[in-house]
Specification:
Number of strands: 7
Radius of gyration: 16 Å
Strand content: 25-35%
Strand order of the largest sheet: 2-3-4-5-1-6-7
Helix content: 25-40%
Largest sheet: 7 strands, antiparallel
Low-confidence stretches: 1-25
Number of domains: 1
Shape: globular
Order of helices and strands: HEHEEEHHEHEE
Length: 188
């Protein structure tokens, strides 16, 4: 089965990420030299299920002390706009941003084309159907914490995906959404 792929370098990903600092949302890990962007994941959902910033913070606080939650930004209704999550034990960091509109519609259209004719398990089919109805998305930019030394770009041994997978699961649950790995086209 062929999976759609999305290939981004650090510069491309940084351009896709909103400039959080300019919007008053705090500092993005893209601007922090101690972190290097590795990959981006999405949680697709119906915008009526957009979680409140306080609810996301509370759900992720359950992961303490494994993760540190920074710069939770919400709109005037308390709905999540962005946040930063650090998971030092996993040598990871994540910027999370809310997206809706044309970008999401275009992605759903592309996923429909890419997934057309593919066979999925019953559980996968339910998730795929939900993803294809999405009107909003959380972008999760996954970073490797470089620490004091410089790591070779190909050295990914220090980056543990455990915190990322847990965060994706919690965000999907809170938004009644579906986690997607756009690099492989896989529903997580």
């Amino acid at each position: 089965m062929t999976r759609p792929t999305l290939s981004l370098d650090h510069k491309d990903a940084a351009q896709l990420a909103p400039n959080l600092d300019d919007k008053g949302f705090g500092m993005s890990l893209f601007a922090d030299g101690r972190y290097q962007w590795r990959e981006t994941y999405f949680v697709l959902f119906d915008r009526q299920h957009r979680p409140k910033g306080a609810d996301v913070k509370k759900a992720l606080a359950e992961l303490a002390p494994k993760v540190e939650i920074l710069d939770v930004q919400s709109d005037e209704n308390g709905l999540l706009e962005s946040m930063t999550i650090l998971a030092h034990a996993d040598a990871a960091g994540m910027d999370v941003t809310y997206v809706e509109g044309d970008e999401v519609r275009e992605q759903v259209t592309e996923l429909k084309k890419d997934w057309k004719g593919q066979s999925f398990s019953s559980d996968e089919k339910t998730k795929v159907d939900r993803a294809l109805q999405a009107t909003a998305r959380l972008d999760i930019y996954h970073f490797e914490e470089l620490g004091d030394g410089f790591l070779d770009e190909d050295d990914e041994d220090h980056l543990d995906p455990a915190a990322l997978l847990t965060v994706l699961s919690k965000l999907a649950r809170l938004s009644h959404g579906v986690s997607i790995d756009p690099q492989s086209g896989t529903v997580i």
